[in-house]
Design brief:
By secondary structure, the chain is α+β, with helices and mostly antiparallel strands. The protein has helices spanning 2-24, 51-83, 87-117, 120-123, 181-193, 216-219, 235-247, 259-267, and strands at residues 31-37, 46-49, 161-163, 178-180, 199-203, 222-227, 250-256, 274-276, 283-288. The chain crosses the membrane at residues 61-84, 96-114.
């Protein structure tokens, strides 16, 4: 009897935990019950309900049945314990009481777990919104637009820039030809490790875009880059670019114009940082990241 009661309560608890998951798989559509059931608020009988209302009522009913069975078992076990002098019977009574309490706690725990995860699961709300993850753009220390917000004469904001001539870095013509010396050194090492993937710098210093949010575009410590024509922007190539940049103490982010583009790349397996910037042509933004200091 003890094992059967515990099995029954376990089955009821399992059913309670599965109810919300089942309800989400159904459409909200009313139908007529074969017989009135106490599915309304306060146990009132109803003859028509939708699937959510039916499951909601059954959830309360099953939870109530579990509680009633536990109370009945506790009363029965208490009666056995009080009316017998046999040690074995008293021991059985204590075991029944303990098992009934454990079964009741098991049933209640399903409610507590679901309520902790999301209280709406207990309300069978079919309009639960998916969590939206927003990736904030990287903020480089000391960043900010210049006073006039535009690229001035060559080296106006880049006193540490050097020419890219002779560096063998792949540079798209007409897109600026200088960078900070430290950035050049990191990109040269990066380029050696990227020998199997064709890429190019699409914007260096001075920037061709009239306005930039980050000061790094005006001091040569960041670039825009992209794959060369013929090299596909696959999830593998994008992750390889980002991870290789990180190995050389640079931060690379891939920018896409729509959330659908980011979702597609995520579905293809991309794990690197992908930012949604409306209207942008897909490309990389690569920043010079300072190496962590060690004491």
């Amino acid at each position: 009897m003890k094992k059967g009661f515990i099995s029954l309560l376990f089955t009821l608890s399992l059913a309670l935990s599965c109810v919300p998951m089942i309800s989400f798989a159904q459409e909200s559509r009313e139908y007529t019950l074969l017989a009135p059931l106490p599915l309304g608020q306060g146990g009132t009988e109803v003859t028509r309900t939708d699937f959510a209302g039916y499951i909601n009522g059954m959830y309360r009913f099953v939870l109530g049945v579990a509680g009633i069975l536990a109370v009945i078992m506790i009363i029965y076990a208490g009666f056995v314990y009080m009316t017998t002098d046999a040690f074995q019977k008293k021991q059985e009574g204590r075991e029944h009481i303990k098992n009934a309490i454990l079964g009741l706690l098991l049933a209640i725990s399903t409610w507590l777990i679901l309520n902790t995860i999301n209280p709406n699961l207990l309300q069978f709300n079919f309009q639960i919104q998916r969590p939206v993850t927003t990736v904030q753009p990287l903020v480089i220390p000391g960043s900010g637009s210049p006073d006039n917000g535009a690229a001035g004469p060559n080296n106006q904001f880049c006193t540490t820039c050097s020419s890219l001539a002779g560096t063998r870095l792949p540079l798209k013509q007409g897109q600026g030809d200088e960078l900070d010396a430290e950035m050049i050194a990191k990109l040269q090492a990066f380029n050696q490790d990227m020998s199997g993937t064709n890429w190019q710098i699409t914007e260096a210093f001075p920037p061709t875009t009239t306005k930039h949010k980050d000061q790094c575009h005006y001091n040569g410590t960041c670039i825009d880059a992209n794959f060369t024509p013929g090299t596909p922007a696959t999830a593998t190539n994008i992750d390889n670019f980002i991870s290789t940049a990180a190995e050389h103490k640079m931060i690379a982010e891939y920018e896409v114009p729509t959330e659908a583009d980011r979702t597609r790349l995520r579905n293809e397996g991309a794990t690197g940082t992908i930012l949604v910037v409306p209207g942008v042509v897909p490309h990389f933004s690569v920043y010079n990241a300072q190496a962590p200091q060690t004491n």
